[in-house]
Proteasome regulatory particle subunit
Amino acid sequence: TGILGTKIDIVLAIIRIGIFFNDKIYVKKNVERASTLVESGGDWDRRNRLKAYTGLHYLTTRSLNLAAPLLLDSLSTFTSYELCTYSSLVIYAVLAGSVSLPRVDFKAKVVDAPEIKAIFGADSQDDKLSALGGVVSSGLAAGDESMEVDADASGSTATPMPTAVNLTVLGSEAKEEAAIDFKPLAKLVSSLYT
C-alpha cells in the first residue's frame, strides 16, 4: 500500500540494485512492473526516468535496437543521476544509435540532434558544461542576440532574463561531472554518417 509515485520510486531502486548485481531476469521483471505502475498513473518525470532505466537494461542484454530509441528520447529530459551521469548517457545513446539505427534515423536522432550537437560541438570545457546545463539551447546564448530587452537607466529589465536549469546539479548535491573528451565519439559519428 502507498502512494503510486513512491511505489514507482521503490521499483526503480530495485531495478538499480538488479543492474548492480547484473541480474538480468530480476531487472526485466521489475522493469515490466515499473511500466505497469507508470501506465496506471505515473507522472512525466517517472515516465522519463523509466525510459533511461529501460534503455540501460536493454544495453546490458545487448538489445541495442530497443535501447537506442529509449536512450535518445531520455537525453532531453534526463534526471536519473542516480543511474549514471549525463555524459555517460550521451555516450551510451550515441553508440547504441550508431550501431542499430537506419541511416535516416541515425541522421535525425544522432547526427542532427540538438542535445548531441551541443555536446559534440562544444570546444572548451565551459562550453560543454553550459551545453549540459541547457544554456546552448535557451535564451540569449542560443543565438538570439537580436532579441532586444528593454532596460531602464538602473539596468534592470522589465522582462526577467531567461534562465536555464542546470541539469548537471539537478537531483544531486552539486557534484562536478568528470571531464570527458567527446572528440573521438564525434569523429566516429561523423565518419559513420559521411
In short: Residues 134-174 have pLDDT under 50 and may be disordered. DSSP finds nine helices and no strands in the chain.
